[in-house]
Backbone:
């Protein structure tokens, strides 16, 4: 296989996966962008590894560190994008992480007495910790992920953490070997093996997750069907939402609603998932959209003012949720309602 490096097969698969993912409208656009960057970076790394190991070219070795900086931050931002809207919080996250990655790239360009492997190892380790922290987030912290897909989300996160952890281990091993000696053949072997293992793990994830996604559609309530108590709790939630209009509070949380209903937050979250197949955040947004629909048809208030009245703080989040529920933008909904 010297004429066609095995790592190039990984490159082709990840490039195709990036193309398919780019058209997957089930994910927010910003999440798709960063997951595609993650995939394309893996594709480029696989190409460069193939050039180094199979053809013994030198220039890929100089280029590879600049690409190897990017996958971990891209994966992290892809998952974070599922927890945040396009408001000021997301912009702050982008600036912070963009600055960090920019400094790392400048560190690779600058004539510092530090091996590029150290910078790559530090970045990958930092974002590995960030991804691990995301695992502690509650399902309702991912408003764009349906409740029945929470398990799939965690599988994807664990797989990504395992992949980046493998990269960290390989980078650390390569750096340790480079301190002991300069055996170029051993370094090439370690580099090639780490690339192949990373590619193998990712391909397994790539093939497995789509099957899990399709299966999850048919198994929304198969694990635990809703009980009478679940239906009673959801009826109580509906009553309090309609009578008190709690959803109009933009700071409404699962814990606060659970306290009003005198039940543990875990019970309310579980009942919501089992009865509606959605998480709590999406359910609350459905009440907000219903309120906005009525206001759009019965008042002349500007769309932005209706957005705030309904409990949304971000225009992009409002538009995304409105289109998810109605299939139209707020302006289109108002215009069509006026002509019927």
Residues:
């Amino acid at each position: 296989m010297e004429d066609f490096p095995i790592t190039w097969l990984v490159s082709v698969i990840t490039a195709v996966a990036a193309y398919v993912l780019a058209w997957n409208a089930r994910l927010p656009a910003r999440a798709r962008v960063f997951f595609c960057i993650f995939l394309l970076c893996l594709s480029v790394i696989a190409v460069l590894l193939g050039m180094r190991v199979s053809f013994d070219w030198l220039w890929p070795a100089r280029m590879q560190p600049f690409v190897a900086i990017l996958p971990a931050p891209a994966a992290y931002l892809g998952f974070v994008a599922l927890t945040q809207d396009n408001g000021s919080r997301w912009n702050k996250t982008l600036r912070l992480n963009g600055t960090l990655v920019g400094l790392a790239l400048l560190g690779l360009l600058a004539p510092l007495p530090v091996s590029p492997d150290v910078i790559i190892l530090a970045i990958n380790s930092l974002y590995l910790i960030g991804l691990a922290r995301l695992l502690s987030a509650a399902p309702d912290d991912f408003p764009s992920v349906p409740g029945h897909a929470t398990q799939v989300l965690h599988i994807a996160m664990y797989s990504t953490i395992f992949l980046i952890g493998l990269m960290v281990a390989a980078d650390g091993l390569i750096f340790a070997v480079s301190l002991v000696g300069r055996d170029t053949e051993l370094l090439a072997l370690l580099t090639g093996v780490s690339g192949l293992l990373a590619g193998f793990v990712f391909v397994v994830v790539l093939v497995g997750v789509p099957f899990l996604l399709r299966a999850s559609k048919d198994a929304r309530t198969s694990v635990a069907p809703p009980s009478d108590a679940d239906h009673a709790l959801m009826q109580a939630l509906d009553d309090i939402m309609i009578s008190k209009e709690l959803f109009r509070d933009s700071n409404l949380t699962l814990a606060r609603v659970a306290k009003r209903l005198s039940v543990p937050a875990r019970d309310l979250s579980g009942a919501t998932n089992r009865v509606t197949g959605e998480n709590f955040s999406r359910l609350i947004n459905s009440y907000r959209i219903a309120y906005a629909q009525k206001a759009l048809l019965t008042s002349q208030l500007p769309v932005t003012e209706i957005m705030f009245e309904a409990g949304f703080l971000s225009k992009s989040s409002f538009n995304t949720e409105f289109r998810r529920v109605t299939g139209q933008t707020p302006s289109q909904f108002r215009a069509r309602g006026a002509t019927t």
Summary: Residues 228-338 form a domain with the Arc Repressor Mutant, subunit A fold (CATH 1.10.10.60). Residues 184-217 form the longest helix (34 residues). The CA atoms of residues 14 and 39 lie 6 Å apart.
